[in-house]
Amino acid sequence: MTLQNDIKNLEKLEAATSLKKEADVQFAKGALQQAFDMYTQALDHVQAHAGCLSNRAACRLAMHDEQGCVDDCSAALELLGVGSGPVAVTARAELKNSTLKDSFNMLSALLPGANSDRRKAWLLKTHVRRGAVLLNLKQYKLALEDYNA
Questions:
Q1: Could you read off the pLDDT of 12-41 as tens digits, one per residue?
Q2: Can you tell me the distance from the alpha carbon of 86 to that of 142, in angstroms, rounded to the nearest whole number?
């Protein structure tokens, strides 16, 4: 990577972070559609942003888009290094076959350390969220996999 590419990636990361912060505010206010749109815009800048995926999943859940919630949770778990179960197949394929490869270079700036308490909390929250939705969708075996993770 050249210095110019690094600068461009940092600008994308800064834009995504700014949008995520504003989306978090909108979500807290209950402005779900605005928050969803801002998380999506942030992901347009940095597709490998697990925090935006996880928070957009919460928006989808609140807006009763259960399959969208499962999809975003699966993609977030894949970025966090988990997700070998059948629910993650689509997310894994997208990660390997899309422009996310460029975003992986920024993952160290986005993800907490491998064994940190923050990363463990993200994993727990995302597994529980996805598991709850899978239960609601009557996909009991898959939900149990998340609760056992």
A1: 889 999 999 999 999 999 999 999 999 999
A2: 8
